[in-house]
Amino acid sequence: MTLIGIIFYGFLAIVAIVSAVAMLLNRSAIYSALFLVLNFATIAVLYLALGAPFIAFTQVTVYAGAIMILFLFVIALLGAEKLSGHEPIKGQRTMAIVLGLIFVVELVLFLIFRNQGIQPMLALTQDFASPQKIGIAMFTQYLLPFEVVAFILLSATIGAIVLTRVEKPARLGAARGKK
Amino acid sequence: MSQMSDLLTILPVLIVVTWALLLLVVDLWIPKQKKGLTALLAVIGLAVALGASLATSGSTTLAFNQMVVSDGFSDFLHILFLGSGMAAIALSYDYLKRMQIERGEYYVLLLFSIAGMMLMAQAYNLIMVFLALELLSIPIYVLSGFASGRSISEESALKYFLMGAFASGFILYGTAMIFGASGHIDFPGIAATLHAGQVNPVLFVIGAALLLVGFGFKVAAAPFHMWTPDVYHGAPSSISAFMSVAVKAAGFASLLRVFMVLFPGLADQMTPILWGIAALTMVMGNLVALMQTNLKRLLAYSSIAHAGYILMAFVSYGNKQFGSESISAALFYLLAYGLASFGAWAIVVAMEKDYGEGLFLEDLSGLGKRYPWLGTAMLIFMLSFAGIPLTMGFWGKFYLFRTTIQAGFLSLALIGILTSLISVYYYLRVVVFMFMKPGEKELQVNPWVGLVIAVTAIAVIAMALYPGVFVAWANQAVMLLQ
Amino acid sequence: MFLSETTSMDPLFLVVPLVVFLPLLGILVNWLFGKRLGEKAIGTIASLAVGGSFVVSLILLFALRTDPQGFSVPLMQWFTVGGLDISWSFRVDTLSVVMMLAVNLVGTLIHIYAIGYMHEDAIHQGDPTRYRRFFIFMNLFIIAMMILVSADNFLMLFVGWEGVGLCSYLLIGFWFDKGEGGIANAQAGKKAFITTRIGDFGLLIAIFLIFWAFGSLNFGDIFPRVGEVAANHPGLMLAITLFMLMGVTGKSAQIPLYVWLPDAMAGPTPVSALIHAATMVTAGVYLMTRSQALYLAAPAAQNVVMWVGAITALFAAIIAVAQFDIKKVLAYSTISQLGYMVAAVGLGAETAAMFHLVTHAFFKALLFLSSGSIILSLERAMEEGAQGSGSHATNIDPQDMRNMGGLRKKMPTTFWVYLVGALTLSGIAPLAGFFSKDEIIAAANNTNGIIFVVLVAAAFLTAFYMGRQILMVFFGKARTKAASLAKESAPLITVPLIILALLSIVGGAINFPGWLNLEHWLEHTIKVHESTFQLPVALISLSIALIAILIAWLIYGRKPLAESTSKDPLARSLGGVFTLVNQKFKVDELYHFLFIGPYEKLADFFAHPVDQGFIDGIANGLGNLASETGSWLRKLQNGFVRSYVLSIVAGIVIILIYLLVRV
Amino acid sequence: MPTSFFLALSAIMFVLGILGVLLRRNALVIFMSLELMFNAANLAFVTFANQYQLLTGQIFVFFIMAVAAAEVAVGLALMVAIFRNKGSVDIDQLNSLKG
Q1: What confidence score (pLDDT) does residue A93 get?
Q2: Is the dihedral of CA B403, B409, B410, B411 positive or negative?
Q3: D3 closest CA partner among A108, B178, A120
């Protein structure tokens, strides 16, 4: 691995982490969403490096594109509400940060220092994960999961409609009117 | 490419999802006042699936490139899930009408969720486990928020959703670690790699721990249980009933499958953890249940406590000699718990006045005298929960404790016995309120709800006379599993 | 294994399931048709059901005379799992048939008595609709008791054991909406249930341990193998027997779990007589006798049993001296007599224990039922008095002996039978109690001097408090208007009393010294030590009893209580000691302080700080400002999703720390 | 570049996601943090897919994305419903169920 490579990956990692932290810290939901998009895009580049072009593009289109746009729509719909930085649950912040730190130390200890199976990243050939190969696998070996995903999406659609369709019973509306 | 035999393997699931799709369309032509028809159609669909499940049971087959399996274990659970689905619909029909939240989609979503559970019992690949879990969870998120406009329902849905997605994150990360440790994601592959000693032990352990957290959430094991009372409290009671039985059973089913594959390599590390979780769950669930005044919350904490008892089976599974016995004990316990639980929740459904109201223990006052049969049924359910002899609950505890003691975990069994003694207090308190306090409350016992109460009450007693038959059934389920 | 036995079995044995099914039939008939049948018919059906059971027991007795070694009669295979093979099968041997006979005989008489008693009681309590329920519960009790004594394995025995506990609970709280504050009866039921449940916990552990050690729960598999297993696991027998003793102290009301029995007097009097004096409470003694083989393998446990029994006998007798409630005196006397039986088992004199169990069933049932007759007639008189004068001034406690007096003339039959019962209990020759109690004291004389002294002292107190009771109730002048208006009860009530009195008189014959019937009878089932009649011991105990009665007469007979409010003469001389004894040495308060209070606090602690403030606990562990804790706790009963998530994260962090250490 | 580099990055992102859930009060941002956790898992999958040269890992990631989309639909619908009712998506105001 060349020095340039290290700098390149290091840079991407820093961008990813900084954008995640920025999402976490920013008080405005819109900025949070935008930082998350940045994070997703960075990860997409890493996917490319890891030999997963198809996943990288899906990441950009589905995640950064569709999902985050959906978020932005909803934020726009609800009126970007700004909550005060006040923490109502006492000790939550301290505990969360302490536990988070311990957790990350644990994970890093496990994944890197205790992990004997560390291997260098492989440079995979272009057609290892070509859309064609993935498509074939998806319709042969992974046919059943593919179909199941279809049902998940369908039930989510039904669910979203059920939850948002305004259909208040008359009595309830009257009761609320009285208040 | 899929073949006839592949489709046959998942025939019951296919029936359920196809039926759900048809129902979704048919429902459009069913007028608003006649949604009972949708309910009826949904039950018929489940009955057909049950028939198919019984007809195709008895063999072990893999299908779809080893994505799913059909064996005694899945047969057992299919029957449990389909049965609880029918019971849930029986509870829902009149309830939804009274709460003015009747909509055809309710039943469609319920069917999708059941299909997810059934797949979960059949999953033979971590991809399938995850997807089945989502197929079962997403409709449940929606269903627990189904009482639109009622803030407690929406609150419970959002709580459940956020925490459920959080737990899904853990399951995913755990799956990634298992994949990283073994290079496989299908159960036979993982098992083979494990057997050959080629796994990366560190990644493997951490993956198993993360999976445990995710499933621990689904089955409401302490300290991952805190969502349970809030969600059961806010969700429509018919859905709470369904969650407390079927969703929990699905979580355990998956946990059993996954751990049966992973456990041979992990017994040393995981058994103490499971020990701690089981003990904590039993203690937490039972002690906090003591202080509850709302019946729904009481049942929620009781369901946490029962999850703790079932987890004892995972501990005793650590002793290889008693592996299959502990699984069959867990299955049997699930059956016993599910029956009594549905009965008790049916009574909650009958009691509920306006949405979420009329559910305090005081509201039970005098019901035993006014409705002696109902009171007797509740007595039976509570006795079964408490594990008092002549009920299924007793046999469930008996087998569990026996296996646990035989496997050499005497102290855990003692904790279990002690906490179940404590539980007698709050279960009997329910009965005391019903029979010994004066009160003039009315109930709305719809015939279908009454049917659920009657069937479960009779089953709890009648099946307790011949526990051997059902133990044999559970044993058979395990036998084919291995 | 059953098959070979069944082939050579006298077909008469096959009737044994009827002891359970006849009462069941009674329940069904009363349940389904009772509403239309009327009170007399309900009572008759219930009594016939138990009477039928008694006849069946007699048939079994007859069958056993030719085949005394006994048989196991399988009804059906219950279930087989792994090594566990349980069947519903009945054990017919000399021991179980003795229990069946005693329970069914006394039970039948009490059922007949209850026909009259409950008729009046239900009217007095103001809810005649519960009449039918009473008899259903009573028959249910007989069923459970029959399952208990005829069980062929520990599991079936446990089913019966729990069943009688349930019935006891139901019947103590029978008038659950009555009693002090409308709740006292229900609370008494609860207390009995919870207290005995603690004992049951011990028994359950014992059963688990037995299964673990023997791999079976069948009596036939276990008892012959005790020696071999005891040799392999020396400590195990001790554990099993001690845990079993825990169960016995609960059900048979021994120290320290006796506290429920006096409160159990809240139930209707026939219940007190049948369950809390004659039959259920003896289940513990029966269990230990049945498990004699286990106890023989654990001499240390036998010692413990002996001491528990003897101390209970003395302790309860002391308390009985200072009670004023007529049924409470009898209740403590029951505890004391059960102490004798338990002590006898500990002394290795199981036959004596069984002998005393049977005679005690006769005379204690007699005493309770007679006291019920007195209470009823006082209640009747109170109501008449109230109608006559139109005032409420006659509202007195009909169970308080200070409100009685002079009933000898008013209720002659009751007086005579009560006198027989009291003398029998006091151990006056030649009544039944004399022989049975004497055999226990003689066994103590052979074994342990201190125990002997303790038991003789208890015998002295027994005679004294019975003398006190007779004198307070029947002699002197009527101290209240109700007592002066009391009348003899109806024949339906007095006839069973007379029969029981006759049984108390001749009951000693079943193990008459020199004749030794019961001993030879039981030796087919358990190990029996030949007991000898010791004349000096008999004389000592007889004279002690006579002296006690004399002293009672000196204190209470010469100068009877003048008013219902006047002080007990003993209280005048003993002062504070008497008050302390009257308050039962404040054991209930002690238990409340030691167990119930802290338990409630603990539950509260777990509910609030630990669960909802789970995070708080960790924070404290990390040393996060104790001063904030208070305000935290309130806020942390929260419902916040993020706190819940925090507990999940805390869980996984702890698990991973553990794994870091382990892997 | 060793694969552990990517694993470490994924671990850090996973924990940052958890922290977001723990610290933020806006339900939408909590939801975004959940997406971050999913992404961390995806990164780990793709890394392992590279290490073992197995397509399975990548396909799993594709499925996860689809499921995430489904969850987003339901989750956002829920938040819209709650916003209609309460006028806020502050998660801390949703604590009427407790005890």
Answers
A1: 86
A2: negative
A3: A120
> Is C111 in contact with C138 (CB distance < 8 Å)?
yes
Query: What is the domain extent for residue B366?
Result: 4-481
- C145 vs C149: CA distance, rounded Å: 6
**C135 in Cβ contact with C391 (< 8 Å):** no
Cα gap C402→B57, rounded to integer Å: 76
Q: Residue A38: which pLDDT band, with cuts at 50, 70 and 90?
A: very high
Mean pLDDT for C631-656 is 76
**Average pLDDT over every residue of C300-326:** 88
**Whole-number Cα distances in Å, D9 to A105, A112, D1:** 12, 11, 13
| Residue C179: exposure state from Cβ atoms within 10 A (0-12, 13-18, ≥19) | middle
Helix (H, G, I), strand (E, B) or coil at B63: strand
Structure tokens at A14: 């820093």
B481 three-state secondary structure? helix
Residue B47: CB atoms within 10 A of its CB come to 14
A41 part of contact set with chain D, CB < 8 Å: no
Domains in chain D, please, with CATH? 3-90 (1.10.287.3510)
Tokens 């239309």 found at: C36
Task: Choose from B109, B128, B162 for mutation: most chain D CBs within 10 A.
Answer: B162
Alpha helix (H) residue ranges in C390-490: 407-410, 412-426, 432-447, 449-474, 481-485
Q: How many CB atoms lie within 10 A of CB B419?
A: 21
Q: What are phi and psi of C258, to 5 degrees?
A: -75, -10
pLDDT at C630: 32
Place of tokens 């389909």: B82
Which range, A39-43, B291-295, C44-48, C497-501, has the best average confidence (pLDDT)?
A39-43
How far is C-alpha B212 from the chain's CA centre? 17
If we measure between CA atoms, which residue out of C163, C160, C156 comes closest to residue C86? C156
Helix spans in B57-200 (H): 72-99, 104-122, 126-144, 151-182, 187-195
Mean pLDDT (chain D, rounded): 91
Residue with tokens 């007798």: C317
Q: Under an 8 A CB cutoff, do B206 and C659 touch?
A: yes
Residue of chain A whose alpha carbon sits nearest to that of B1: A140
Nearest to C171 by CA among C150, C215, C199, C140: C140
**Which residues 53-72 of chain A have a CB within 8 Å of chain D?**
54-55, 58-59, 62-63, 66-67, 70-71
C178-188 pLDDT, tens per residue? 766 667 777 78
**Interval A48-83: pLDDT, tens:** 988 899 999 999 998 888 888 889 988 888 876 677
CB B357 within 8 A of CB B233: no
The torsion angles phi and psi of A166, rounded to 5 degrees, stand at -80, 110
What are the sequence ranges of the domains in chain C?
575-609, 613-663
Burial B219-251 (b: 16+ CB within 10 A, else e): bbbbbbbbbbbbbbbbbbbbbbbbbbbbbbbbb
The answer to whether C640 contacts chain A (CB < 8 Å) is yes
Query: Taking a C-beta distance cutoff of 8 angstroms, is the pair B116, B134 a contact?
Result: yes
Q: Name beta bridge partners: B125.
A: B186
Q: What is the ipTM of this complex?
A: 0.94
pLDDT at C5: 45
C79 touches chain B (CB under 8 A): yes
Give the CA count within 13 Å in the CB-facing half-sphere of B281. 29
Nearest Cα neighbor of C175 from C134, C206, C205 is C134
Contact at CB, B167 and C78, closer than 8 angstroms:
no
Beta-carbon contacts of C24 under 8 Å, excluding residues fewer than 6 positions away, are C139, C143
